[in-house]
Design brief:
This protein is α+β, with helices and mostly antiparallel strands. It has a single domain, classed as YjbQ-like (Jelly Rolls), CATH 2.60.120. It is built from four helices and eight strands, in the order E-E-H-E-E-H-H-H-E-E-E-E. It is globular, with a radius of gyration of 18 Å. The termini are close together.
């Protein structure tokens, strides 16, 4: 059995967005040389997700509209003394603050939205290609809108 791993880096704009990573993942599978097996696409983050969906602007807008209703963004600034909070996260007493004193991003809504997505997706590899239908697009979904950053997506191919 052979394995091959590469990382896709995605730069986000500090806003919720869909980013098509289909071609990048497919190229990694082809580069692996594996003809038969599986590929796992995995995120090491908690306020974003991976989804397979049609590439349709109206459908993507429906997704954002649903999320805005289900888990709206925090309306106030955490640092205002009279702020009214929707969410308990971020917890000012979190152990994560000991590692990073700036860990107070108002992104509770992003984490709740991520509960309804997955951090990984597995595809079959058949004849050296990632097996998908022509209607499917592999999207990285940025749910956090607190800052611009680079997200890392691990693509791990296993097979022969």
């Amino acid at each position: 059995m052979k394995t091959f791993t590469e990382t896709i880096e995605v730069s986000t704009n500090g806003k919720p967005e869909y980013i098509d990573i289909t071609d990048k993942a497919k190229k990694i599978v082809e580069k692996s040389g594996i003809k038969s097996g599986i590929v796992v696409v995995f995120l090491m983050h908690t306020s974003c997700g991976i989804v397979i969906q049609e590439k349709c602007d109206a459908l993507l807008q429906d997704f954002w509209d649903m999320y805005d209703k289900m888990a709206p963004k925090e309306p106030d600034d955490l640092h205002k003394p009279d702020s009214k909070r929707f969410y308990h996260h971020p917890d000012p007493n979190s152990p994560l603050r000991q590692k990073d004193p700036n860990y107070m991003y108002l992104n509770g809504h992003s984490h709740l939205r991520a509960y309804f997505l997955t951090p990984s997706i597995t595809f079959p590899v058949i004849d050296g290609k990632m097996h998908m239908s022509w209607t499917q697009t592999l999207f990285f979904v940025e749910l956090d809108e607190t800052r611009v950053r680079t997200r890392k997506i691990t693509v791990h191919v296993i097979g022969e």
